[in-house]
Amino acid sequence: MLQNNPRFVMMLMALLLLVFVEWTNAFMTPTTTVRSDLALNLSSGVEVEDVSRRQWFVSTIVTATASWYGERVEAAPTSKVLVLGGTGFIGSRVVQQLQRAGISVTATSRDGRDGTVALDILTTDHVVDRVKELATGCQAVISCWGAIGTANDNVINSASGLAAKGAKAAGVDRFVSFGIAPEVVQAASGIEFIQPYIQGKQFAKQSIQSLFGESGVIIEPTFVHGGDSFGVNPPRVAGFYGEFIEGILSSSPVRAIEGALPRGNIIQVALEPPISVDTVASAAVAAALGKLGSSVSLDTYDKIKEVAGLL
Hints:
By secondary structure, this protein is an alpha/beta fold. 47% of the residues lie in helices and 10% in strands. Helix 6 (153-169) links the parallel strand 4 and strand 5 (174-178).
């Protein structure tokens, strides 16, 4: 019977070979191009192809086996993401989560540390062209650029809008950035020093939505907590304390009160739960990888949590 069915023989051989590869993998550490110090370091950001030789070998077997049976197999394109501001509070977590997902990452920082590409938006004359160059070949760009309480708030927070223009010119499919929750904008309307920050964020949001439409995702939390320390400028709440407050404010009784208040009311803003930096990063990665059916502004605690759960 086997002699009369060569395809069956080839299929059987391929499956036996695949079993052998999986068996030997239990006794051997797979070779990978990812440096462990980069995969575990929160401040890392480097262009890296996280594809092991074993993965390539198994993929080749499966593809060849399917072709013997006359099935057409489409090779999945290598996913590559550009992270702007990849060593910051949110950006470092974004890079880490992308690497864990096996995504090739190019990350930027102001000074090019930790293997990142140097890109200082305050000293770079042609931000659009530079982003276009770096984004070429990427499926998505995640901009983590942002600042508050500096003399350059407007310039820095507007830069994501310029980056969107460069990404669009490079043929990028999706663009993800971070904005400011609408209720915070409304509640802070009379606070003068925060207006450059808000104006920069709003310019970036309008630019991204104009250029990318539903493929542009703006994540707009009220307050993000995380890390080991507290800070005043920029405002920062340590993770252990933030988790405690988040647990209280996300409880059903408090959410019921918060939901009954007009959005933008100062009390409503105060009762909106803060959100973990890791959750925000997960939402950004999920959006960049196209896990959203249709992209909208993630402008509430619940929306961000829901999208983060897709990763």
